[in-house]
Specification:
There is one protein chain. The protein is mainly alpha-helical and about 90 residues long. The protein contains three helices and no strands. The longest helix is centred in the middle third of the chain and has 31 residues. About 0% of the residues are buried. The model has no long low-confidence stretch (mean pLDDT about 90).
């Protein structure tokens, strides 16, 4: 899924941050924190998951849907799609 070593490191770092956020949710629940604290933690985790999904989808579009001979028009359309997805996943 990661197409370069740099992308792999970036994706793994995102996953590790998400794991930390999930641990924070578990801790908040275990300590019987207030609803607003738990909801805030869940929201942060959800945002991180959406950002991870957007990055993976973008990589998929750029490396598996567009081929090496993509026209400028196709590349612009892919850019528009990625932008729309990122907006939707915010």
């Amino acid at each position: 899924m990661a197409h370069t070593v740099e992308e792999k490191k970036r994706l793994l770092n995102r996953v590790r941050r998400i794991m930390g956020q999930v641990a924070a949710i578990e801790k908040a629940l275990d300590q019987e924190s207030g609803c607003s604290d738990v909801l805030h933690n869940i929201s942060a985790c959800r945002g991180a998951m959406d950002a991870l999904m957007a990055e993976v989808i973008e990589g998929h579009i750029r490396f598996h849907i567009l081929d090496k001979s993509a026209t400028d028009e196709q590349t612009d359309a892919a850019d528009d799609l990625v932008s729309a997805l990122r907006t939707y996943l915010k």
